[in-house]
Amino acid sequence: VFNGCPLRIHCTVSWIHPETRDQHLLIGAEEGIYNLNLNELHETCIDQLYNRRTVWMYVIKDVLMTLSGKTPHLYRHDLLALLSKQSHRFSLHMNRIHERLVPRKFALTTRVPDTRGTQRCCVARNPYNGYKYLCGASATGIYLMQWYDPLNKFMLLKHVECVLPNPLNVFEMIITPELEYPMVCVSIKQAYQPNRFKLDLINMNSGASWFHSDELQDMDGTATVIPKRENLNIVNVSQLDKDSILVCYDNIVKIITPQGMVKINKKQVSELKFHFNIENIISLPDSVLAFHKHGMQGRSFKNGEITQEITDTSRTYKLLGSDKVVMLESNLIRTGTLTSEEGHDLYILAGHEASY
């Protein structure tokens, strides 16, 4: 959809303009937030909406939530206002009110208070009550926010002080029917027993962390030297249903329970093994798409068979976003080195259930 893009992109999300019904691709990059209208690709034009470094994005009801800035904060952007401002970018500035003088209520972009230094964010919908939650990992712990329709924004519910693993490779909400608020998984390790995993969960309902709570239960009573838990090179963690969690590490995708046991199910496999190290993954209702340096491979949950495959050793691929539009960045390899001067090519992956 775009050749020679010079931006250093971290993430992408898609958004449909409620009035024009145009589909927009929003790009979060080192250079700021950019907009690519997928219905006007003939113009081959990417417009800047915001000029701060942006590493994470999420769209809800014409509102864009981002992690932006050199020291990341959570920001809320009004997409319709940002786009209308951008469409008048050639108008005279004489009668424009400076952004800082606009009352906060009408500001296009607002910084969410008390979110300085947020390193990771995740969003989840509770299927049992319909609420949408946003969790952020800050220097002092985890904050939990809930989407509030009348105000069209996320409202802070609570902050749980805790010490998080560093680096924080896992940060995903786990939602259960019996708890009002989610639990947050911040680490997954290999347990002492084979085919067992240790999930470090922080319970946002009570503020209790379940770190090492079953350390003693893992021992069989005969060991004199406590074996070290094996840290896994986690690529992705995502909850499939109330008692199934997908965990991806190295070249393996496993389905486990919130208690860390491998999920046994006659109708689907509990483990998928790929012949390459997985760099990123997309979970579909009946299969997974695993991405590697030179392409991707899809495998079925039902029988583990390959559903689709793309491999091109002359190019490198990187998954940028996978909300409704799966976005890939690709570079041509020349004599074994990547040339960044020419920029990246942006592709949309079509032909799977998550696309329009």
How would you describe this protein?
This protein is an all-beta fold and 356 residues long. It contains 1 helix and 29 strands. It has one helix at residues 79-87; strands at 2-5, 9-16, 23-29, 32-37, 47-50, 54-60, 63-68, 73-78, 109-111, 120-125, 132-138, 141-148, 153-161, 172-174, 183-190, 197-203, 230-231, 234-241, 244-249, 252-256, 271-273, 280-283, 287-292, 295-300, 306-311, 315-322, 326-334, 337-338, 344-349. Strands 1, 26, 27, 28 and 29 form a 5-stranded antiparallel β-sheet that branches. Strand 2 (9-16) and strand 3 (23-29) form a beta hairpin. The longest helix is centred in the first third of the chain and has 9 residues, at 79-87.
In helices, the fraction of residues equals under 10%
Radius of gyration: 22 Å
Q: How many DSSP E strands? A: 29
Poorly predicted residue ranges = 87-104, 212-227
State which percent range the strand residues make up: over 45%
How far the N terminus sits from the C terminus, by CA atoms, comes to 15 Å
Gross morphology:
globular
Mean pLDDT: 82
H/E series: EEEEEEEEHEEEEEEEEEEEEEEEEEEEEE
List the helices and strands and how they pair.
Blueprint: E1 2-5, E2 9-16, E3 23-29, E4 32-37, E5 47-50, E6 54-60, E7 63-68, E8 73-78, H1 79-87, E9 109-111, E10 120-125, E11 132-138, E12 141-148, E13 153-161, E14 172-174, E15 183-190, E16 197-203, E17 230-231, E18 234-241, E19 244-249, E20 252-256, E21 271-273, E22 280-283, E23 287-292, E24 295-300, E25 306-311, E26 315-322, E27 326-334, E28 337-338, E29 344-349
Antiparallel strand pairs: 1-29, 2-3, 3-4, 4-5, 6-7, 7-8, 8-9, 10-11, 11-12, 12-13, 14-15, 15-16, 15-17, 18-19, 19-20, 20-21, 22-23, 23-24, 24-25, 26-27, 27-28, 27-29
